[in-house]
Design a protein that fits this description.
It contains ten helices and seven strands. The protein is α+β, with helices and mostly antiparallel strands. The protein has a five-stranded mixed sheet with strand order 2-4-5-7-6, covered by helices on one side.
Length: 365
């Protein structure tokens, strides 16, 4: 490949020389003929054959020298203004093909270089940066999936071994079986969330828009956690505005509410309070889910929408760190907004904004 490239470079240089030679020969010959003709007319005599032959030889030497000079200048120009940036770009692309996304190309000097190369270099550097971040996310995702799968599998393996003991009591057998069931359910939930998140991120799930009463959906979703709040003696406060209608995919939005309710009850201690509110604000329906749980620091809050991130490891066995990334992706697809406010030791409030249905806006006017 290198020999072939070198041969093409030599061929290009020779071709450039002959092009410049023919151009210089044509221009110089025309100029000399005009000069001789004008000179003969001005001095009033014809030049001899030997004089013309000498002039032709001198002209030929000049043409060759001019052609060599022009070809050399053109070669140097291409060497520094074309071949150097192309070589840099090619080397960087080769490294990226091999998986090295840390490579960056230094911009070319503005003087004497086509600025189009700098535009290409800037685009390649940006592409390398994006690929590097994607590769990091992919690596982290695989590592996290492996880690999250290892925990329930280890639980299932350990309790399965204990079940094989000949002297296990009925009470212990039920306890071990329940532990295996819980671990398998957690593993199944994680796989389901991974598939959902993957399909959402790759736009393989297309929202089926329908107009419905958001308040009814929220109440139905909240009632599904009745056993959770009764078990922990949690107080439920609701402030739900009537007839707030939205045009959205009800099934996808139910994932949002279920995850937010689940987190609220998971992190709220016994005797705490969970508050659900719904009201309108201009063209948006605003949903707030507030708890009186442990809260979180701003540092933890900045990462809660990242895959597998779990700020409170004491509740790690109750989730897999995929709920809130799933929520964020659904809200993005719905072209809505989600935010979080939290104070350590006080609690957390999630605020979701969803665009209201058009006829609901007309009624409000």
């Amino acid at each position: 490949m290198k020999k072939e490239r070198k041969f093409r470079n030599i061929l290009g240089t020779v071709s450039s020389f002959f092009i410049f030679f023919l151009l210089a020969a044509f221009v110089t010959t025309c100029c000399i003929m005009l000069f001789i003709s004008a000179l003969q007319d001005s001095v009033g005599r014809e030049f001899t054959q030997s004089e013309i032959t000498l002039a032709a030889k001198i002209t030929m030497v000049n043409v060759v020298l001019i052609s060599i000079l022009m070809a050399t200048i053109d070669y140097l120009r291409r060497k520094f203004t074309v071949e150097r940036p192309v070589k840099r770009i090619t080397e960087a692309a080769s490294k990226m093909i091999e998986g090295d996304f840390s490579v960056r190309i230094e911009p070319m000097a503005k003087f004497g270089t086509d600025d189009s190369f700098n535009e290409i270099i800037e685009a390649i550097n940006k592409m390398a940066s994006e690929l590097a971040s994607v590769e990091t996310l992919r690596t982290d995702f695989i590592a996290n999936v492996s880690h999250e799968m290892k925990t329930p599998l280890a639980v299932m393996q350990n309790y399965g071994t204990l079940l094989q003991a000949p002297d296990v009591t009925e009470e212990k057998r039920i306890e071990y079986a329940k532990a295996i069931t819980d671990a398998s359910r957690r593993l199944a939930d994680m796989m389901t969330n991974i598939l959902k998140l993957n399909r959402l991120e790759n736009q393989q799930i297309y929202p089926k828009t329908e107009t419905y009463d958001l308040g009814e959906q929220l109440c139905e979703g909240l009632l599904q956690f009745e056993s959770a709040w009764e078990e922990k003696n949690i107080t439920i406060d609701t402030e739900i505005e009537d007839n707030v209608r939205v045009s959205a995919d009800g099934e996808l939005l139910s994932l949002v509410w279920n995850n937010l309710f689940s987190n609220a009850f998971k992190f709220t201690e016994d005797g705490g309070t969970v508050t659900l509110s719904l009201y309108t604000e201009g063209q948006y329906a605003v949903v707030k889910v507030k708890d009186t749980g442990c809260g979180m620091s701003p540092e933890l809050g900045a990462h809660i929408f990242e895959k597998f991130y779990q700020g409170d490891t004491s509740h790690a066995t109750q989730g897999n760190g995929l709920g809130l990334p799933l929520v964020k992706r659904v809200i993005d697809i719905m072209q809505g907004e989600i935010g979080v406010e939290s104070t350590v030791g006080v609690g957390t409030t999630f605020t979701v904004r969803i665009r209201r249905a058009e006829h609901g806006l007309e009624e409000a006017r």
